[in-house]
Amino acid sequence: MRKLNGKRVAALVCEGFEQVELMDPRTALEDEGARVDVVSPAPRRVRAWKFTDWGKAVRVDVRLEHADARSYDALLLPGGVINPDKLRLHHEAIRFIRKFVEADKPIAAICHGPWTLINADHVRGKTMTSWPSLEVDLRNAGANWVDRQVVRDGKLVTSRKPDDIPAFNAEMIELFAEQAPVSARAQQLRV
């Protein structure tokens, strides 16, 4: 039995997300049975950054303006420098992230991905990690920043860099598996 059968995950990205930080976690989630939707303010496709140059273009499954956080069980925030820097200035993206925070749904962020969590007011009091250049930003926003491969604090998983993806994926899958699927919660509310 796959751990994430029936789960829906939103992967929030815009132009310049780090290719491996979306593709590898998405594959790991899908291999465990999750449905992963690429959510973006971009209309049809969004280009990845691949370490030092532009990478693949990925199809957008749901435009951000049409995305409803209530339809998802969890949120994935890939990094890359360009992607979260743009997203944290996009009011609808921050509002979307806050909906997951308010609903106490699990969130996994890697590399520069935690930058958006600062703007969504979801780092104060959290122990977390990130790409090293975010350390001061996260500390200034009230986080307890640590230099570890992967960190879990409640329903938040963070990781530092592409080399840490195997550990990130394992911890993200465990966290997401604990969340009852949206469809199951909707049935419970109807009873």
Number of helices: 7
Please summarize the sheet with the most strands.
7 strands, mixed
User: What structural class do you assign from the helix and strand content?
Assistant: alpha/beta
Integer tally of domains: 1
- Radius of gyration of CA atoms, rounded to a whole number: 15 Å
- Could you spell the SSE succession in H and E letters? EEHEEEEEHHEHEHEEEHH
Summarize the amount of helix as a percent range.
25-40%
Architecture, CATH level 2?
3-Layer(aba) Sandwich
Can you tell me the CATH topology? Rossmann fold
Low-pLDDT stretches are 186-191
* Total DSSP E strands: 12
Query: Under the CATH scheme, which class?
Result: Alpha Beta
Cα shape: globular
Sheet with the most strands: spatial strand order: 6-3-1-7-8-12-11
Q: Strand-residue fraction?
A: 25-35%
CATH superfamily: Class I glutamine amidotransferase (GATase) domain
